Amino acid sequence: xxxxxxxxxxxxxxxxxxxxxxxxxxxxxxxxxxxxxxxxxxxxxxxxxxxxxxxxxxxxxxxxxxxxxxxxx
Length: 73
Prior knowledge:
Blueprint: H1 5-33, H2 57-72
């Protein structure tokens, strides 16, 4: 029963591929069940809507940049 080096390397590569696929699926299912960000229901409301009424300097600069980019195209 002579097993060549090529066959041995193929067996090692196939077994490591199966192990990695199993490990990835295990991590994905583990993360889905223990995701702390999904523990609350998102209602879509702003936390402090009055702050959205007064834009700050950074928001105004970003708006100017977006308007300039829209007109350049």
